[in-house]
Specification:
It contains 21 helices and 19 strands. It is α/β, with parallel strands linked by helices and 579 residues long. It has 4 domains: 2-227, P-loop containing nucleotide triphosphate hydrolases (Rossmann fold, 3-Layer(aba) Sandwich), CATH 3.40.50.300; 243-395, P-loop containing nucleotide triphosphate hydrolases (Rossmann fold, 3-Layer(aba) Sandwich), CATH 3.40.50; 400-460, no CATH class; 498-571, Alpha-Beta Plaits (2-Layer Sandwich). The structure holds adenosine monophosphate.
């Protein structure tokens, strides 16, 4: 197995380096794809992309350990698109097939394939249960190049003869462990049987339980094996992080900018770098932060040396207090006294995080590192913690009330300083003259109000919705095929904080774990990792979900159909005490 993190690091020691050439060009990708990547603002491939793209272009099979956040989607989408654009021509049958565990991922991957293939005319279709069969049939009839599908619905189409796989040139199993966990094993095998023998196949999985190894043994031929993200041992590089206070705020993508802005207000950094993944993000965020009254400068690999020097001069002199940069652009920058490092996204490898935050906390000074993460990126943080052997404190974004309280606290502190500073005689006259007419406390409060307002209005503050963070816990492996018919069902949840839900349909109604997984992830938006044990009896089923998500899951399941019918869903009643 190749450890993907072994990719050589680009050296850099001072500001005078020319911006790096796109590393994508050296992977041998078609120029049309390079221009799509450049318009997305990608500067260089992530480790999984560097390692996976060449073998897939060379039509090898691939077995890769990689999860969300590592850039794995482009790692398989780019070689697929490359073959497609080079072969050209209109086709009626499916060229590339990507199988994913959930509807959400199907949509996400289909969008990503579309983005990576912008300008190439690629036709991509997401195929999943719950979306209109009619629309899917019409699109398949017209011709689709890449299908991104959940196994259940894909197999429906194969069996109806509405999706021919005879000409498939590349098959990708994405999040294969999740697919098996969700009980899709048989569906997967049936779909793979319908694809031509000898076509290349890539299997991506975050974990490698025995069942994945079995699948890989049966279905892959001498695959190139990649292992990603197993953080290396802590070394001298990680020691630099010891003095850095590290906090990670969970936030949904849509609220990231508002969250960053709010945390900046609270932290009030003297001098900070905000790291982003792409040039596009750097431009967008620096512009928006400036629009919100910050003094931010953008820096990315698309800048000329002259622009770069100008930016660095403004940042070093204090004319700008925020530098919004990509990793490539910030590589080799030597700036003393950076009080804060912000990670707008979690870096896709733990070592990258250590490099970023090593820019603060220099020369024995304390520094602060703040990371914004989406719930699904929780595992990337755990990986970083394993490498640095240091806990990253998890926090939720301050509410509007927190912000107001903080501003009042700042006003109080300034008033206190003013009182201690003395020299108030000229102002006492005003207070004296009002004291006859008003209560003294009211006079003082009015003064506070004026002082507070003079600090400047924060502008309209939107409430950023709180986010449920899944716990990092052992994954659940349902026993879809092996559950004995008469096994007594457990009455107490196995996971801390989880509750059991009763579902009024079971094996007799054809319910399988995959149906419950699918319905809960698709309708209630939970990640498969949030779902605990599922047990299926003849007439009913029990499923564990996090306590805080239970009401939402119940409501959503009541409004949907399982195997074509509405079912009773409620909290499982505790078992009667034993006598
Ligand atoms: P994935 O692991 O495929 O879900 O990708 C995680 C995130 O990284 C997505 O937001 C991608 O748009 C982004 N991404 C993927 N590859 C790159 C790259 N080479 N440079 C910058 N961002 C990337």
């Amino acid at each position: 197995m190749v450890d993907v993190n072994d990719s050589p690091e680009t050296p850099g020691s001072d500001d005078s380096r020319e911006p790096a050439e796109s590393g994508f060009a050296s992977l041998g990708l078609d120029p049309r794809l390079l221009s799509a990547l450049s318009s997305l603002g990608y500067e260089e491939p992530t480790p999984i992309q560097t390692q996976a793209i060449p073998p897939l272009l060379g039509r090898r099979d691939l077995l890769a350990q990689a999860a969300t956040g590592t850039g794995k989607t482009a790692a398989f989408a780019l070689p697929m698109l490359d073959r497609l654009v080079r072969e050209g021509g209109e086709r009626k049958s499916v060229f590339g097939l990507v199988l994913v565990p959930t509807r959400e991922l199907a949509m996400q991957v289909a969008e990503a394939v579309h983005r990576y293939g912008r300008g190439t005319g690629v036709r991509v279709l997401a195929v999943y249960g719950g979306s209109s069969m009619g629309l899917q049939l019409r699109a398949l009839e017209r011709g689709v190049d890449v299908v991104v599908a959940t196994p259940g619905r894909a197999l429906d189409h194969v069996r109806r003869g509405t999706m021919g796989l005879a000409d498939v040139k590349l098959v990708v199993l994405d999040e294969a462990d999740e697919m098996l966990d969700m009980g899709f094993s048989e569906d997967l095998e049936a779909i793979l049987d319908a694809t031509p023998a000898g076509r290349p196949m890539a299997l991506f999985s975050a974990t490698f339980p025995a069942r994945i190894a079995g699948l890989a043994n049966r279905r892959l031929t001498s695959p190139v094996e990649l292992r990603l993200g197993q953080a290396k041992e802590a070394g001298p590089a990680t020691e630099g992080t010891a003095k850095v206070k590290q906090t990670a705020y969970v936030v949904h993508r849509a609220h990231k900018l508002a969250a960053l802005s709010r945390i900046l207000d609270l932290e009030d950094p003297a001098s900070a770098i905000v790291f982003c993944r792409t040039r596009t993000e750097v431009d967008e965020i620096s512009e928006k932060l400036n629009g919100r009254g910050r003094r931010a400068e953008a820096l990315h690999g698309g800048f000329s040396q002259e622009q770069r020097d100008r930016v660095m001069k403004r940042f070093r002199s204090g004319a700008a207090d925020l530098l919004v940069a990509t990793d490539v652009a910030a590589r080799g920058l030597d700036v003393e006294q950076i009080s804060h490092v912000f990670n707008y996204d979690v870096p896709n490898e733990a070592e990258g995080y250590v490099h970023r935050i090593g820019r603060t906390g220099r020369a024995g000074r304390a520094g602060t590192a703040i990371t914004l993460f989406e719930p699904r990126e929780q595992w990337l943080l755990s990986n970083i913690e394993r490498l640095t052997k240091k806990k990253i404190e998890r926090a939720t974004v301050p509410t509007v009330a927190d912000l107001r309280a903080r501003r009042l606290e700042m006003t109080r502190a300034s008033l206190r300083e003013t009182i201690l500073g003395g020299g108030l005689d000229t102002f006492r006259v005003v207070v004296d003259s009002l004291a006859e007419e008003f209560d003294l406390l009211d006079v003082a409060a009015a003064g506070v109000k004026l002082a507070h307002e003079a600090e400047g209005s924060p502008g309209e503050e939107v409430e950023i919705p709180p986010v449920f963070v899944p716990q990092d816990r052992p994954r659940f492996v349902p026993r879809a095929d092996s559950a004995p018919q008469v096994r007594p069902l457990r009455r107490t949840p196995r996971l801390p904080g989880a509750v059991s839900l009763f579902i009024g349909a079971g094996r007799d109604a054809g319910i399988r774990p995959a149906d419950l997984f699918g319905a809960i992830t698709n309708e209630a938006g939970l990640s498969p990792r949030d779902i605990g044990a599922i047990e299926i009896a003849d007439r009913f089923a029990l499923v564990e979900v996090p306590g805080e998500a239970a009401e939402n899951v119940i409501e959503k399941l009541r409004n949907t159909k399982l195997r074509g019918r509405k079912v009773v869903v409620r909290r499982e009643r505790p078992a009667p005490p034993r006598r």
